[in-house]
């Protein structure tokens, strides 16, 4: 009996998985999508860099004799090759001709106006990008302010860096920073979109089989609960495959493309800090765990919705309560990120239908103790079994029922009779 059940479920899993990974939509969204996004970002930078053989070679000339070294140092930190030329009345004309001849990419002129207002002039043979212009403007302004703040006892560099406000919360589980909050937000939004996308796919697959009468043929060879379980696992495997391909694509970009991009565009050097912001293997394991539990919870409910409806219009209306359960945690995401240790955050993140989306930002911020993480998985496991029991009974009866969409009393009767 067990062998027959596993064979039946395995056949459904294989069918659902292969049918979707071979579809054009999956190939476009999973493979061509990251490649296209990478090409849109990397190809222009690469082509632009081929035409920038001398643009990273800059000259600084300073009429004040107070700013050149500071500006040159900051430009070198940004990846440029810089040399300082003495100021003279003929400097602009001479340097302009050398730039036109291709000796270097351009030169920056600093004068008394720069000391007073921060205004400087950048002479170049090609118009710089907005990012490059803002970067140069920022480092010149910082150099001017640093020079103006040079008095005894003032660390101008530290002051201009914004200082540091150390937050030490008493009885706090862990420490967090802006990077943790960013990872928490992006991870939760990804969980929200992927869970919703593939859970709805289970509903549509069920509805398609029911309206086309294929389900009547399938359930004659296996139990409806086996069909539902195989469909959920198969579609879930497709979702995991998509997440894996995206993760590999991101890793390839960070390893191979990012150094090239930074080398071509030194003003984007801050991107080199992105790999250090990414979560480690343990956190990624928890991320996948929350996806799996969240998917099984909502996929079961969406499978029941698809089984009890007879058209897309009915399914759109019937899924509203389920949509409420998945949209509500997204609405509380910002309050949880801002205060991950509050009573509200802890309570919401432990509610099993909200845990897949709201517990992750608390994990990323190191604000969730181990016992709360473990409890969230226990509660989610209980929710999975409860949803599977309820959805299985609705699925068993509704898959072969046609006509008007059942009312709530009729659904309760289905559950009792199944």
Question: What would a concise description of this structure say?
Answer:
It contains 19 helices and four strands. The chain is mainly alpha-helical and 418 residues long. The chain has a four-stranded mixed β-sheet, sandwiched between helices.
Molecular structure report:
The structure is a single chain. The protein has 418 residues and is mostly helical. It has two domains: 55-160, D-Maltodextrin-Binding Protein, domain 2 (3-Layer(aba) Sandwich); 175-417, no CATH class. 70% of the residues lie in helices and 5% in strands. The protein contains 19 helices and four strands. It has helices at 2-21, 24-50, 68-77, 91-100, 112-117, 130-148, 156-160, 178-211, 214-218, 224-264, 274-277, 281-308, 312-318, 320-331, 333-338, 343-350, 355-364, 370-398, 408-417; strands at residues 57-62, 81-85, 106-110, 121-124. Strands 2-1-3-4 form a four-stranded mixed sheet, sandwiched between helices. It is elongated and about 95 Å long. The two termini are 20 Å apart. The mean pLDDT is 77.
Please write the string of helix (H) and strand (E) elements: HHEHEHEHEHHHHHHHHHHHHHH
Instruction: Report strand %.
Output: under 5%
Backbone CA Rg: 30 Å
H/I helix tally: 19
Give a short account of the largest sheet: 4 strands, mixed
Q: What structural class do the secondary elements suggest?
A: mainly alpha
Mean pLDDT: 77
Strand elements, count: 4
**Which residues sit in consecutive blocks of at least 5 with pLDDT less than 50?**
none
